[in-house]
Amino acid sequence: MTIVLNTLETDDYADEIDTLVSNMGNEVEMIKTSGMNISHCLGCNQCWLKTPGVCAIKDDYEKIVRKLVGAQNLWIVSDTRFGFLDYRGKRVMDRIMPMLNMNIEFRDGWMRHQLRYHTLNVGVIYKGKGDQQLLDEWCERAAVNLGGHSLGATALIGGKEDA
């Protein structure tokens, strides 16, 4: 299963996004997050300490994290008008903490949080003039933290001139 979290405010790029992820070879679910009530991560660590795997914030992200438990791939679609993920893209990624465990282990020579469920591959599809090298590196680091591999950063062709 591939989950695509589209944080863009408009549906102008829906067809292009669909074309980009359709080659993943498995079921794809697109979730438009711009109209959803998704709060920022508070960093309270309750998803690790008090209610393992369950975020203390009760909002629309609960539905998303339940779907991520069954997913192999995660694509975040974000505007990059300032060169990196905008606040909406960062918000949906920050809230992924319940997928991890508070315990630490060494993986590939680095200290990482243990995975609560399974590995998750991570990629970014971006609108605007994002820094391709920085976004590719971020995908690599995020995927390693989630035990998976990078799906890379892909620019929306129609979104470059909008930046």
**What's the SSE pattern?**
EHEHEHEEEHE
Principal-axis shape equals globular
* Tally of strands: 7
Task: Name the poorly predicted regions.
Answer: none
SS-based structural class? alpha/beta
Describe the structure.
- With 163 residues, this protein is an alpha/beta fold.
- The protein has one domain: 3-Layer(aba) Sandwich (Rossmann fold).
- 24% of the residues lie in helices and 29% in strands.
- The strands form two sheets. The chain has a five-stranded parallel beta sheet with strand order 2-1-3-6-7, sandwiched between helices.
- Strand 6, helix 4 (132-145) and strand 7 (147-155) form a beta-alpha-beta unit.
- 34% of the residues are buried.
- The mean pLDDT is 91.
Essential attributes:
Rossmann fold, five-stranded parallel β-sheet, 4 helices, 7 strands, about 25% helix
Compact overview of the structure:
This protein has 163 residues and is an alpha/beta fold.
Present the secondary structure layout.
Blueprint: E1 2-6, H1 14-21, E2 28-32, H2 61-69, E3 73-79, H3 87-94, E4 100-107, E5 110-115, E6 120-127, H4 132-145, E7 147-155
